Amino acid sequence: MRLKRKGMLKNNFVKLNVLVVLVAMVFSNTLKAQISTQTLNGSSGINTITSAVPFLLISPDSRSGAMGDAGVAISPDANAVHWNPAKLVFIDEMNDMGYSLSYSPWLRALVNDINLAYLSGYKRLDQFSTIGMSLRYFSLGSITFTDVYGQTIRDFNPNEFAVDLAYSRKLSNNFSAGLTARYIFSNLTGGTQVAGASTKPGQSVSTDLSFYYVSNPFDIGDMPSTVALGANISNIGAKMAYTENADRDFIPTNFRLGSAINMNLDEYNKFTFTFDANKLLIPTPPIYDPNDPNVILSGRDPNVGVATGMFGSFTDAPGSLINDGGNYTIENGSRFKEELREVNLSAGAEFLYSELFAVRAGYFYEHPTKGNRQFISFGAGIKYKVIGLDLSYILALTQQSPLANTIRFSIKFNLGNTGSSE
Length: 422
Hints:
The chain has a single domain, classed as Porin (Beta Barrel). The chain is 9% helix and 46% strand. It has a 14-stranded antiparallel beta barrel. A 3-stranded antiparallel beta sheet has the order 1-5-6. A two-stranded antiparallel sheet has the order 14-15.
């Protein structure tokens, strides 16, 4: 089977390769990480961590997208279902329910018809609890499947989606916890047969466990301020497979930890600075012996269970090997350095005027050996009565980055307390 990509810019084969790699995840049983991209001469090469359904990690909304993909501890809105569901119960009590709809043309530097749509909402149950729901839909555009002779087999539109149901509960006046259940569906081939084997959509279920803390007001100088802390372990769930006999792949279990400082500069002007750190809780590919792909020279066997993979992800980086005439040794401190490189960093700021207009900016950093996503982002938001509109833009800092010029749009609706007697 071969793949041809429709809707590409002329003669741009890089764009075709992106889609081929995405669909090649279907046949992961033939792509075991037995050839590491790390070098064996003492230097540390590229060793990215991959998973099924990476679309679950894409920042879906414009507000956090404008702040460098930071969102676990910022003030809550309907998009907290993605970032930190525990925040939902701290949404302003004047808002009984709310909704948000976001859309992003994705990877437009490479292809012109991949997009992400995200719908989320919440409903307050009482002063101590709130529920949230979301639907995330990721379309990979149109693909033509062909056989080895170039004859068309069929056209297909690969797509993936996830449905969330979240519950947020106050445990004290300042602290809350959240729990999310998620169903994941990934259809990359539409059942097309490959080498006589039938493919199928990948399916999984997962859960998120989240926490949120916001301090009582205090003064920084003469400015009333608060500090918020947030944590979210997302996508804790079963592995996925796209064929009956394929090895099952990890879904992107992720640990997000962050903080935010909120300052009221005066009656009308507010400023927020936020910082997030993220780490995937799935195995890092080890370094295999180039002469015997069944022998691991450094690191651990990634074919483990979900719980083992999560807890082992903090100590399984293979580091850098030094090849001394066929005798391999681990470079001192290289394992710990690689573990640190697996933490992605986000920082962002938001200036809000009179609860009506906002400007935002942020920075995202991923180490070059772990994917090399580095960009600055900025955006703005405007609110009129119950409706808010947000826009964000990514300016990539690495050459030929697929994230360059990414735009996100979000529209939010916050509805008043329907149970009020006033």
